[in-house]
Amino acid sequence: MFGPSTPILRSFDEQRTKRFYVDFLGFEILFEHRFEPSMPLYLGLQKDECRLHLSEHHGDAAPGARVRIPVNDVRAYAESLRERGFENTRPGEPELMDWGSWEITVQDPSSNRLTFYTEAHD
Asked: Where are the beta strands (DSSP E) in the chain?
C-alpha cells in the first residue's frame, strides 16, 4: 500500500518563500533544517493533509516543477487568495478542464507551479 507523497520543490529566497507559502497560501511550518547555520534551508510545510518540502539545496530539485493539490472548494480558495494577494500573484477564476476538474494555478517565487483543483461533479 502506498501512502501520500511529499513533493520536494526548489526554493531560493527563504523570506519570500515563507511569505508565499505561509502568509499567502496558508501553510504552516512543520520544521526548518540546516546542517550548519550557513547551509541551505530544508523546509517542511503542511496545510490540512497536504505536505510539501522546499529545499535550497541545488541537488534536491529543479525550479519550475508543477504539483497538483486537491482542495474541497477551489472557488472559495481562489477567492481567499485574491483577497490576501501576494506581490503580483492574483489567481483568476477556476477553469473547468477537459479531464473533469476545476483548477487554478499559481507560481511560487522559485517558478514552481501549484495547481489547486476540485473534481467537478455532475
From this structure: 8-10, 28-33, 42-47, 50-55, 66-70, 95-96, 101-107, 113-119
CATH classification of the domain holding 52: 3.10.180.10
Residue 25 lies in a domain: yes
pLDDT for 42-83, tens place per residue? 999 999 999 999 999 988 999 899 999 999 999 999 999 999
CB 111 within 8 A of CB 63: yes
Q: 0.70 cut: is pTM over it?
A: yes
Q: What's the order of all strands across the beta sheet hosting 66-70?
A: 66-70, 113-119, 101-107, 95-96
Domain that holds residue 76: 8-119
